[in-house]
Amino acid sequence: MKTIKLTLLLFILPIALVTCKERVSSVSNTVQKQTSDVDATAQPIKTVQIKLLNGYFFKNTHNVDANPTFFIFKGEEVFNDYLGMARTMNNQIDKPDFDNNTVLAIVCEPAQVKTEISVIKAEKADENNINIYYEVKTGESLSYSMQPLLVFSFAKEENLKTVNFISDGKTVKTFTLNRRAAGAPTSLEELKDKYTGTFAGTLPCADCSGIETKLTLKKDNTYVLETVYKGKGNKKPYIKKGKWTSSEDLAFIELDYDKKESIYYSLIDGNTLEKLDNHAQPISSNLNYRLIREK
Question: How many C-beta atoms lie closer than 10 Å to residue 57's C-beta?
Fold first, then answer.
């Protein structure tokens, strides 16, 4: 009887070992397949090389909207409008290359405190988005006022859509580079044919019940802007006249492009304009900033 039991034990043990081995092999193959699948779809984060541009100051002809305020400069003209060259005997002035690089700046409000702005790193999360991680450090008090400024650039990316400025793990500002709406015009002829006319609506107001706005765009690139601040007592519209032009990609129009302070409207479609901020970026708000074509 003992011999029979021993024989059965010896017979069953190899079967158990083979079954266990097969299960381990099956689990191992499954894990390898899953890992392979993840590796095949995951996109590695790429480091973006930042080039600092030294030798500039922020002109006092412009105000800082927030602390800090961020800029992406589209060309040399607007760059020179906001920034001046700090010419001294010892400093180096690095000229930006607008043809091949995206040029940016971070600026803080003037203060009598030693303040340093720095970019910790820049990463390309995917082909459409670049994240700029920055920090602002303050130190000892100063006997004079200084306005911290950091100007830098990175190589242009063909498919880049957004640039995110991130500090302490929070996205502080997002710039949308590809701002064309689906219904934006595809040519200047279409712009003047379908987007000129009169658009009206009530825009948000910080200290009144709304700004009644009527904007007439003429085909000769002139405009008439009528505004009434509701609840302010004076019901007579304030009338402003000037010139308008379009962005290179026909994404928005710019009123008073020939002056220091411009007004921007996004071309949503032939019947809709949407007001943008002072940097031609979408306004981060749930309020309505759209003007609708008058029938």
Answer: 14
Q: Residue type at 282?
A: P
User: Residue 126 pLDDT > 60, yes or no?
Assistant: yes
CA distance 251 to 259: 20
Contact present, 189 and 198 (Cβ < 8 Å): no
Radius of gyration of the chain measured on its C-alpha atoms? 30
| Three-state secondary-structure class, residue 143 | strand
**Could you report the per-residue pLDDT of 27-78, keeping only the tens digit for each?**
344 434 444 444 445 567 799 999 999 999 999 888 787 789 898 887 787 7
Looking only at the bridges linking them, the beta strands covering 69-73 and 101-107 are antiparallel
Q: What percent of the chain has pLDDT over 70?
A: 83
Q: What angle do CA 65, 96, 249 make, to 5 degrees?
A: 70
Distance between CA atoms of 230 and 204, rounded to whole angstroms? 10
User: Beta partners for 245?
Assistant: 254
Q: Which residues pair with 228 in a beta bridge?
A: 212
Token pair 């949503």: residue: 268
2-29 residue pLDDT tens? 444 434 333 444 444 444 444 434 434 4
Please tell me the distance from the alpha carbon of residue 265 to that of residue 284, in angstroms, as a whole number: 14
pTM value? 0.60
How far is Cα 151 from Cα 71, in angstroms, rounded to an integer? 9
Q: What are the CA-CA distances from residue 221 to residues 44, 75, 254, 259 (Å)?
A: 47, 22, 10, 15
